[in-house]
Amino acid sequence: MKKKHSGGGGANWMDTYGDMVTLLLCFFVMLYSMSTMDKEKWIALVESFNPDAVTEQNPGGHEVTNELTQEQVDADIQTLYETMMQYVQQENLTDQVSITKGSGYVFVSFDDAVFFDGDSYTLLDEGKQILDEVAQAIAQVSQSVDEIRVLGHTAQASAMEPNHPEVDRFLATNRAAVVTVYLQEKNIIDPARLVSVGYGQWRPIADNSTAQGRAQNRRVELEITGLDLQSGIGDDITQYYTMRSGESGGSSVAESWSSGLENQPGTQTGSGQEE
Fold first, then answer.
1. Residue ranges of the alpha helices (H) in 211-258?
2. Would you tell me which of 121, 144, 168, 210 could form a disulfide with 200, CB atoms 3.0–4.6 Å apart?
3. Where are the domains of the chain?
4. How many helices (H) and strands (E) does the chain have?
5. Strands 219-226, 145-153: pairing kind
6. pLDDT tens digit string along 72-95?
7. To which CATH superfamily is domain 66-226 assigned?
């Protein structure tokens, strides 16, 4: 009598099927990842396949392409100015927002009522909408931006005496910080290039003795500076590390900063030797 041989192929097709399902799952995961990939990650992926497209990092940590020139930076700053001016005019915000342009920078001044209620640092929805437009304009030229300084100002409430220092400084500082945080959460620029400053009542632009003057003094400002690629002292971040180290040259300081060697125990500073 012949024995029936039980075929061992019954389970083999399951293995093959399982492998196929796993591969399909990996494929769809990759598709999803690519569909949600942000701009920076996409650039990094492209550069990994194309060495010729590699970007270089300047001493301040600002990633710039090899093709970026001072002419392009200047053109980007001009574009930023024109884009923001167009938005302000279209939305009839010229009474609340003023924009000026100088050599290498754009300066924007907002009436505090655009962003906040009186004595508050909670950002209004209307203010968020305006900042969304500002962030979008900056994002288009972010590679050319050196630093964004957010400046908070108050008005002297009484003509007889200054504001209470703690209340005055805290309000101005918190308002500047709230705007800075909102811009940072938009991921338009390296957070190291976002700075908030609270001046309080001490940088007035009008007379505090009148209600109109006090209204002008209560404001939030953006100072957006472009990169100076021809500067021998580097960008703003490089200058920071240069100043705190007491060095005269930016490159050596930036190198020690990037390598993590700066400010080690025993490093001599301008104030003496650390124990």
1. 211-217, 236-245, 250-258
2. 168
3. 66-226
4. 8, 9
5. antiparallel
6. 999 999 999 999 999 999 999 999
7. OmpA-like domain (3.30.1330.60)
